Amino acid sequence: MLYPLSYGTGNSKNAGQKYCFFNILYKELVPGQKGIPGTVATRKYQADIFTSNIDGLTLAKRTPNSMSEKVENVQIEESWKKVLAEEFRQPYFAAIKSFLVQEKKAGKTIYPPGPLIFNAFNTTPFDQVKVVILGQDPYHNPGEAMGLCFSVPKGKKVPPSLVNIYKEINRDLGIPIPNHGDLTHWADQGVLLLNAMLTVEANKPASHQKIGWQTFSDAVIRHISDEKDGIVFLLWGKFAQGKKALIDEMKHYVLTSPHPSPLAGNGFQENGHFSRTNELLEKQGKTPIDWSLEVEPD
Q1: Is 290 annotated as catalytic?
Q2: Which of 111, 140, 161, 281 is deepest in the core (most CB within 10 A)?
Q3: What is the residue-averaged pLDDT of the chain?
Q4: d(CA 157, CA 143)
């Protein structure tokens, strides 16, 4: 079993030393081996192996081909794995992994938790995408980021931007405002809740803006634009609207408005995006989105 952003150790009887096999996005616990990387036990994972001792973690030697991710190791929903296979083989993707490895090695906290980094993709398979909402980067406070843009787990305070989104849905469609911020129900229906950056350092907004995630998320948008038809893209704020050039507007629908953040003023209100999205979906014979969310018991 592979688990993102975590690592396991194995004791080597011969070496008297721990061997830690760490794959920043995908981890597999492998028995420790005495010797250099390149043995049968370690060859497949050389790009992600650390040897650990009393002095801490040391990066193991890499071979020239070790920076390319084996696509079959990527723990992402199968339809996305096929669509994004070439991205996982690119040097920039290996560079993202390398950066995150070093950050974790330095003791830094990264959000969201590893198993949730690809939550948007795992919850909304490629062949089910009908709507794309683009965010910027994950929430940077403890326990908030869950791999779906604008969404927080149940039990967490609803962020101000999401409060304004709920207010507009209430005004636009008359749907009651929920008392939680978990948007999984939307994602289950084909709303890809995509952040442009998939990770962030704790308490440091936009800290991973330049590590390569934008190259990855731009590729995601291009693939959707090239390989699908009639997708409704909701681009809120200048950052999201900067991605408009990646979308073929002859094939898709692009709705824009100011960002829902209170810092952007009241421009988001009365944009009518939620009813309009459903109109565009129904026009194509697609099932509209149920934007309502269950109210959690007090």
Answers
A1: no
A2: 111
A3: 81
A4: 10
